[in-house]
Amino acid sequence: MSPLSLGRKFKKARDLVRCGEFAEALILYQALARQFPHALAEYGSAAAESGDFAFADRLWGRFRARQRKDVRALFWLAQQYGMVGLHTQAGALYAEAAGTEATNLEAQINLASFLARTKSIEEARAAVSRCRELDASSEWVRYLSAHLDRRENKLAEAERQCRELITSGVKLPQVRYSCFSELANVLDKMGRFDEAVASLEEGKKSIRQPLSVAADWRAWFKVPEEEVGRVKSLPKNILEKWGKTFPPEARVAVGPVAFLSGSSRSGTTLLERILDAHPAVAACDESMVFKKIGPRIDISADSIPAPTLNVMRELYINSMGVVLGTLPGGKTLLDKNPARTVWLPAFLRTFPELRVLIALRDPRDVIISLYFQDHPSTNPLTVEQLAYYYTLVMDCWLAVREWDGLTWMETKYEDVVVDPRKEGGRVTRFLGLEWHENQERFHEHNREKPILSNNYTDVTQPVYKRAVGRWRVYGKLLAPALSMLGPYCKKFGYE
Question: What is the Cα–Cα distance from 434 to 209, expressed in whole angstroms?
Answer without folding.
Answer: 52
